[in-house]
């Protein structure tokens, strides 16, 4: 069983994996590694950027941030690129984080909405500059046209399909764990059929995973595009429920987790039963197997770049949109909290011709991604973007801008209350402020505060705000005004949006709503 030790504030000098894979590793992984090696020997000219975002990927889930993890493709990208040790999401779930990733703006800070409609998105800015743009999202309903995400993309496919009209189809769409049970229970027959047909068992158990659709679309986009391009792909395999292909479970665990163990783990969590250490360990292993599954898919994308002859002119950016909790603070998945297991995410930038193995210890936010990508493609960033480019840190070793990173969430009366908040009116507004060492969290509606010193308390269990030392008090005095300013900005936007409301808000259509329910967002 792989360990789950947090290394959120521990530098790793050599991002390599000490684990060995079993005999059925795919050839594509080693090829993917070769393709990253080829990029490091180029002349440094960047024509294209591939942005890979991975849903629910916490930092310590991959080898560059924890040597006990097995993610060979991402580890090779890190070894030949730049790793940002303290990179933080601006929210605890996708709709709160992605406005920063694709529009370099905080959620709610433009018009009180969780989307990017009307924003100068990264794709829009690049498209206006003549860069070809493609975006492929593995069925996350929050990254769709309803919230403005196709804007600026020449090609865009969210793979959010109709759920069908039958009661059975709608039920499965809203209850993916039940679908996972069915897939798992029938998996021995499917695997036997695959072996008889001479096929591999790489395909995930859960057919709702659109990993291969994303791969195929991304490959077609690369093959059909002659001009410089920006390609964004978003993976959902690491989102609950974790149902990886069997081979990846074998690669990340010391033993086998049979179908009955996976069924048992998913049953207990879906029914809200108490999760013991064994079940929690199984869930962690399943999660790590999905990470490895995505890792292998990224390797195949790198193979595509190599086959197209453009690996040595394509920069790769990899990030998690938020993390995942395994009961560090009492829950599973990613409920509305702002601790490191949900906010500390990977950020790797691999640029052709730049020296590899660089570690950046300064804190950065994901709103740095749009200006960084724009810089790599020699496109000017618009003044309204909030983030600062990390290209100088990647190419010249300069220290990034050291403004603290602000993250937000909205929480109802209960932490596990659904639906997912879609406005500031859906609960209390919580805001966190982070630098390289400290995390300050404030409930803007109740004035409750928390303060954690991460180097001495990496899992943030000891709240120092009640009886602060002089040093801690100085941190609070420095961070509290940042919270106040951020809250004031969001409240102002909320007021403006409410004043402009014509009472005709566009409702989410029933198929999209069903897919959001399938992610647990009822």
UniProtKB/TrEMBL annotation:
Residue span, Sulfatase N-terminal domain: 47-379
Gene3D superfamilies assigned: Alkaline Phosphatase, subunit A
Low complexity: bias regions: 1-20, 28-42
GO terms for MF: arylsulfatase activity
Listed InterPro entries: Alkaline_phosphatase_core_sf (IPR017850), Sulfatase (IPR050738), Sulfatase_N (IPR000917)
One Pfam family hit: Sulfatase
Region (Disordered): 1-42, 381-405
Family as reported in the entry's similarity comment: Belongs to the sulfatase family.
Protein name as annotated: Sulfatase
Organism, as annotated: Halorubrum lacusprofundi (strain ATCC 49239 / DSM 5036 / JCM 8891 / ACAM 34)
């Amino acid at each position: 069983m792989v360990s789950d030790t947090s290394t959120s504030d521990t530098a790793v000098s050599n991002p390599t994996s000490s684990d060995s894979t079993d005999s059925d590793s795919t050839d594509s992984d080693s090829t993917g590694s070769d393709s990253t090696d080829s990029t490091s020997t180029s002349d440094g000219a960047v024509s294209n950027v591939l942005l890979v975002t991975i849903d629910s990927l916490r930092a310590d889930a991959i080898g560059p941030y924890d040597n006990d993890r097995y993610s060979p493709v991402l580890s090779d990208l890190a070894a030949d690129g730049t790793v940002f040790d303290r990179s933080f999401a601006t929210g605890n779930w996708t709709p709160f984080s992605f406005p920063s990733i694709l529009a370099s703006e905080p959620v709610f800070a433009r018009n009180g909405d969780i989307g990017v409609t009307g924003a100068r998105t990264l794709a829009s800015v690049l498209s206006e500059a003549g860069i070809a743009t493609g975006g492929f999202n593995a069925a996350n309903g929050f990254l769709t046209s309803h919230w403005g995400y196709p804007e600026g993309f020449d090609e865009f496919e969210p793979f959010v399909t109709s759920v069908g009209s039958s009661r059975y189809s709608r039920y499965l769409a809203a209850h993916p764990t039940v679908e996972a049970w069915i897939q798992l229970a029938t998996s021995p027959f499917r695997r036997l059929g695959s072996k008889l047909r001479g096929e591999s068992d790489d395909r995930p158990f859960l057919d709702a995973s659109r990993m291969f659709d994303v791969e195929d679309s991304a490959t077609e986009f690369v093959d059909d595009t002659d001009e410089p391009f920006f390609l964004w792909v978003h993976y959902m395999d690491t989102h609950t429920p974790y149902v990886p292909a069997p081979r990846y479970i074998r690669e990340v665990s010391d033993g086998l987790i049979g179908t009955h163990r996976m069924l048992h783990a998913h049953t207990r969590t879906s029914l809200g039963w108490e999760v013991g250490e064994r079940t929690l360990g199984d869930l962690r292993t399943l999660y790590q197997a999905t990470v490895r599954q995505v890792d292998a898919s990224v390797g195949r994308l790198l193979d595509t770049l190599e086959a197209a002859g453009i690996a040595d002119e394509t920069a790769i950016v990899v990030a998690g949109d938020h993390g995942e909790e395994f009961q560090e603070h009492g829950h599973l998945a990613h409920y509305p909290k702002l601790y490191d297991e949900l906010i500390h995410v990977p950020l790797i930038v691999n640029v052709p011709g730049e020296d590899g193995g660089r570690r950046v210890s300064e804190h950065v936010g994901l709103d740095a991604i749009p200006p960084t990508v724009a810089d790599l493609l020699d496109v000017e960033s618009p003044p309204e973007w909030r983030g600062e480019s990390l290209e100088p840190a990647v190419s010249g070793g300069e220290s990034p801008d050291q403004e603290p990173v602000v993250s937000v969430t909205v929480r109802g009366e209960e932490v596990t209350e659904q639906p997912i908040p879609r406005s500031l009116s859906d609960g209390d507004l919580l805001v966190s402020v982070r630098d390289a060492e400290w995390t300050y969290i404030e409930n803007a509606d109740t004035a409750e505060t928390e303060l954690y010193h991460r180097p001495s308390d990496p899992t943030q269990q000891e709240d120092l705000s009640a009886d602060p030392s002089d040093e801690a008090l100085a941190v609070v005095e420095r961070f509290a005004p940042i919270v106040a300013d951020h809250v004031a900005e969001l409240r102002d936007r909320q007021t403006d949006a409410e004043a402009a409301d014509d009472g005709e808000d566009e409702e989410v259509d029933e198929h999209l709503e069903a897919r959001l329910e399938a992610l647990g967002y009822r």
